[in-house]
């Protein structure tokens, strides 16, 4: 056993902890009611906040009178934009004016409102009931303007303008790719054309948004406890808006009940609440109620694709062309801008398929609706739906099996550089497709479909780019470029390990999976590891959790820091054992052993005792501490997880209701840290994808009033509508991340709408009707089935 390994022997690629389905360490606290969420925070002298919100979608504020509000019993203060004088939020892209028009989002509306629910004034009172009374007492009158509520009204000639500096209601217009060969392919090949649409959705985290802000005179610091996926970004915007140094702002995220992207942008409300707390020198709490969340929370998903694809007679895809329009609502979200959906779609639309020629135009339009933020999957559910519908339609046109046409077009040689100039790292695209088909065939679903005309089978084969590094985000030309993450790890005198990460846990089991990574790298028991997140004072910097970056980037920073700490332990132990550092190694049981004499061993506690309490015994090159820090950034285009979803549905011929009979997911997210956690991510994501496919949609009246004021109007699936979901794992390790893991957070949501839609259209094929939008309404299914039955009866068949 001569020589020292390049890394500690527990290197995070399979061992005691990596790959183990250990129980979630968060659960005992959360399921017994010992979690601490924003609304659980109660501070001495705390006041409550609420917002006077716009009741019209588009209009000039003719009058705002808060005099009566201030007279309400229990009301402490009421503020307009003029009262607070806060700096605005402006999210920017480094693009020319002909491509991008920024929007200025005031913290409280000034002069004009642009969607129902936009905050106009802030009311502070001694209790929530007085807040509501104060809001009702506010006097607001408007000069109502025509509302922009659709692509057609936004782009119509002489359309009303949401923003005067966006004369066409277009905030982003980019032709991302226009490669040679597109026109030639369409002139020669079999051409498939379709128009797809997806409905506007709300991410619906279980915990709505909220914040508790307090000012500490002693530290001259504003403490904001909020449920945000990006606390460091909240700190930056707060400091800028309030015009105070960043050192005067501390943002802390307690337990958080979901985010799904809606909380990875900076909200206006938390800034206004913080400003009030600073001004009043008293704690102020704001908790969004569900009606506010539905009407004025950040939304997503409303997109239209007009697409053509060319195929050879044997089913080879030769060209793809698409015109994409995303309705982004009233403002650009910070920091991602209105480019978040259209730029994602344009860059990644080819998905898992070889596309020789590609042309795409992507536009973001503004409308009198709540702004759009990232939502789990970000455009990928929509463009995957386009690609998977194209494959099914082309298969029908060319007389091929839907799986076979995919088999002929999926990428099989890696690394693959696509026509979109993206490099795809190794994945199991073909393998997952074939296993998904095998599952349905072996279980007899194809035979059942032959016997029952109301049963359909659908597939969705896709990739999920995960762990976007700064290089990938920079290609979007964001002026605020996310990417890297930072971790610090230390051992105390008891041998316990505390690790920090700039990512944020809001249901993804970070306390468990990150501890597994550390335990594997250092060779300690899982119970010895404690994760700290969500505190801008304790974590030097972090980009938070979104885009499946936690394990890929945050986990890699944690693993690197743990490796460096292990090296420190070995250096000190070698000195104390009077041997070469190459002759010691971590023993996997919380200690360091001498390789040529394993009986000689020092525990981490013994090493810590010297490092902290007897530092005079340390080698000259060692500092009196057991702390290591590491930053990590994924190079190039990131890494790609992939999956195939195979679905069987049945339509009720009397109601058009669609029931999912079988849902199989075959996924590959590289090295799986905790299989149960990944299964939970897949199943939860699929449930949200099914929601978008069959149930959820925010619609608007012509005057811009949203339909969804409660769950009576906004249909959310329950456990009764979500089927049992099986998850099979393939494993293609990632070469870029420290543990070989790829992201697993969004894949379920990405694949579900396409698979469900294809299955429904499979059972409708005999009717001559194909549905090309989500959610799929029972009325549309019923109309197709009824028309087919009438035609059949009329012909006497």
Automatic annotation (TrEMBL):
Record key words, sorted: Molybdenum, Oxidoreductase
Stored SMART domains: Ald_Xan_dh_C
Keyword RNA-binding found: no
Keyword check for Membrane: no
Any Pfam family the entry gives: MoCoBD_1
InterPro entries: Ald_Oxase/Xan_DH_a/b, Ald_Oxase/Xan_DH_a/b_sf, Ald_Oxase/xanthine_DH-like, AldOxase/xan_DH_MoCoBD1, AldOxase/xan_DH_MoCoBD2, AldOxase/xan_DH_Mopterin-bd_sf
Entry's Gene Ontology molecular function annotations: iron ion binding; oxidoreductase activity
Swiss-Prot/TrEMBL cofactor(s): Mo-molybdopterin cytosine dinucleotide
Aldehyde oxidase/xanthine dehydrogenase a/b hammerhead domain: residues covered: 32-146
Protein name: Xanthine dehydrogenase family protein molybdopterin-binding subunit
């Amino acid at each position: 056993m001569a020589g020292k390994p390049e890394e500690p022997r527990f290197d995070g690629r399979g061992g005691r902890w990596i790959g183990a389905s250990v129980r979630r360490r968060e659960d005992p606290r959360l399921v017994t009611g010992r979690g601490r969420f924003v609304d659980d925070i109660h501070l001495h002298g705390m006041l409550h906040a609420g917002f006077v919100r716009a009741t019209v979608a588009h209009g000039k504020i003719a009058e705002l009178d808060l005099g009566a509000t201030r007279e309400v019993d229990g009301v402490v203060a009421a503020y307009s934009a003029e009262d607070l004088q806060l700096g605005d939020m402006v999210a920017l892209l480094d693009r020319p004016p002909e491509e991008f028009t920024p929007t200025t989002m005031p913290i409280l509306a000034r002069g004009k409102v642009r969607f129902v629910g936009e905050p106009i004034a802030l009311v502070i009172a001694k209790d929530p009931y007085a807040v509501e009374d104060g809001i009702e007492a506010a006097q607001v009158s408007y000069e109502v303007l025509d509302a922009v509520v659709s692509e057609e009204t936004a782009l119509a000639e002489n359309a009303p303008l949401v923003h005067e500096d966006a004369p066409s209601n277009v905030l982003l217009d980019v032709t991302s790719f226009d490669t040679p060969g597109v026109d030639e392919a369409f002139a020669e090949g079999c051409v498939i054309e379709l128009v797809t649409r997806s409905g506007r959705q709300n991410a619906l985290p279980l915990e709505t948004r909220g914040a508790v802000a307090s000012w500490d005179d002693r530290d001259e610091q504003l403490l904001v406890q909020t449920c945000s996926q990006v606390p460091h970004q909240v700190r930056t915007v707060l400091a800028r808006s309030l015009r105070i140094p960043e050192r005067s702002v501390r943002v802390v995220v307690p337990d958080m009940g979901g985010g799904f992207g809606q909380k990875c942008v900076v909200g206006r409300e938390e800034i206004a609440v913080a400003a009030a707390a600073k001004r009043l020198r008293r704690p102020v709490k704001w908790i969004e109620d569900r009606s506010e969340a539905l009407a004025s929370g950040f939304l997503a998903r409303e997109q239209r694709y007009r697409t053509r694809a060319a195929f050879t007679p044997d089913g080879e895809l030769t060209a793809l062309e698409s015109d994409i329009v995303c309705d982004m609502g009233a403002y650009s979200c910070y920091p991602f801008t209105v480019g978040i959906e259209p730029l994602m779609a344009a860059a990644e639309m080819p998905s898992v398929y070889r596309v020789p020629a590609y042309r795409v135009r992507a536009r973001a339009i503004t409308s009198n609706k709540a702004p759009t933020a990232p939502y789990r999957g970000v455009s990928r559910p929509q463009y995957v739906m386009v690609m998977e519908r194209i494959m099914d339609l082309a298969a029908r046109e060319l007389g091929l099996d839907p799986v076979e046409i995919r088999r002929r077009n999926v990428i099989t040689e890696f690394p693959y550089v696509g026509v979109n100039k993206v490099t795809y790292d190794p994945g199991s695209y073909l393998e997952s497709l074939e296993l998904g088909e095998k599952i349905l065939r072996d279980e007899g679903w194809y035979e059942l479909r032959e016997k029952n005309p109301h049963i359909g089978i659908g597939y969705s084969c896709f990739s999920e780019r995960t762990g976007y590094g700064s290089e990938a985000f920079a290609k979007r030309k964001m002026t605020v470029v996310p990417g890297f993450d930072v971790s610090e790890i230390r051992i105390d005198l008891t041998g316990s390990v505390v690790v920090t990460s700039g990512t944020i846990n809001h249901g993804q089991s970070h306390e468990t999976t990150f501890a597994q990574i550390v335990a594997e790298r250092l060779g300690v028991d899982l119970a010895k590891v404690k994760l700290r997140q969500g505190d801008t004072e304790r974590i030097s910097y972090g980009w938070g959790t979104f885009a499946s970056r936690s394990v890929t980037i945050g986990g890699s920073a944690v693993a690197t820091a743990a490796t460096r700490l292990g090296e420190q332990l070995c250096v000190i132990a070698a000195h104390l054992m009077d041997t070469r550092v190459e002759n010691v190694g971590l023993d996997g049981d919380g200690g360091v052993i001498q390789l040529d004499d394993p009986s000689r061993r020092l525990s981490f506690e013994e090493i810590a005792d010297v490092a902290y309490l007897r530092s005079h015994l340390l080698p000259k090159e060692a500092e009196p501490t057991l702390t290591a820090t590491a930053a990590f950034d994924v190079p190039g285009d990131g890494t790609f997880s992939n999956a195939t979803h195979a679905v069987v549905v049945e339509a009720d011929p009397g109601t058009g209701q669609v029931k999912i009979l079988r849902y199989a997911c075959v996924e590959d997210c590289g090295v799986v840290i905790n299989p149960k956690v990944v299964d939970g991510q897949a199943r939860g994501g699929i449930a949200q994808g099914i929601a978008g496919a069959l149930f959820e949609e925010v619609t608007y009246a012509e005057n811009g009033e949203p339909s969804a004021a409660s769950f009576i109007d906004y249909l959310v699936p329950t456990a009764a509508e979500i089927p049992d979901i099986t998850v099979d794992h393939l494993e293609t390790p990632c070469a870029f991340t420290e543990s070989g893991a790829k992201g697993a957070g969004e894949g379920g949501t990405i694949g579900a709408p396409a698979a469900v839609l294809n299955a429904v259209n499979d059972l409708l094929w005999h009717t001559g009707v194909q549905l090309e939008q989500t959610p799929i309404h029972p009325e549309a299914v019923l109309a197709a089935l009824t028309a087919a039955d009438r035609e059949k009866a009329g012909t006497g068949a």
